[in-house]
Amino acid sequence: MDRIPILQMGDLLLVTIQVDMHDQLALNLQDDLSERIRRTSARGVLIDISSLDIVDSFIGRMIATISALSRVMDATTVVVGMQPAVAITLVELGLDLSGVRTALNVERGMKLLRRSDELP
Amino acid sequence: MDRIPILQMGDLLLVTIQVDMHDQLALNLQDDLSERIRRTSARGVLIDISSLDIVDSFIGRMIATISALSRVMDATTVVVGMQPAVAITLVELGLDLSGVRTALNVERGMKLLRRSDELP
């Protein structure tokens, strides 16, 4: 598999990370996601990482990059489903994902995005 | 990875198949899904297979089993995002997934489930 599917739900895009990320996969995801944001005028991006048991600085940087990329395209990124061990590792790695919004699960993430959409 | 994540959105569950299925993964998915349907009282299950380029009789049977399993637990299964080549292969294999509802993408699948929910 060399592409991670991006699901559209209204003006939100949902990406579920299930597999180990490698360089090409991460690059493809960035390309695909920015193209989809442009094409669908999406306002929000949900990245579900609930199936990640472990995380490294590569994943951390990828999430930060996707978030920055979405922001310049006027979409908000919310990372959902982070496991406690992953949260601990990210903080220990110094990757506290400042600027990236998080939510406990997809439902809360969607609510967060719908709410932020109402802001001016 | 030995488990496929199941995302909850309201009374719907969403499963995105991204990796090659093997026996244990399929069994785990059936266990997890039935447990989640029970716990969340979900009315619908969306299975996204948009990232599958090829399909074999194992996947076909797995989808049929999940659909039957959901049905006896009073939930409707909709398979979404099937690629043309996959559809052709399934029909050629004789697995026409009778009894399984399909939709072109997640949004349409969700609409289908919401609509069928209104039926008596």
TrEMBL record, chains A, B:
<dbReference type="Pfam" id="PF01740">
    <property type="entry name" value="STAS"/>
</dbReference>
<feature type="domain" description="STAS">
    <location>
        <begin position="2"/>
        <end position="113"/>
    </location>
</feature>
<dbReference type="InterPro" id="IPR002645">
    <property type="entry name" value="STAS_dom"/>
</dbReference>
<dbReference type="InterPro" id="IPR036513">
    <property type="entry name" value="STAS_dom_sf"/>
</dbReference>
<protein>
    <submittedName>
        <fullName>STAS domain-containing protein</fullName>
    </submittedName>
</protein>
<dbReference type="InterPro" id="IPR051932">
    <property type="entry name" value="Bact_StressResp_Reg"/>
</dbReference>
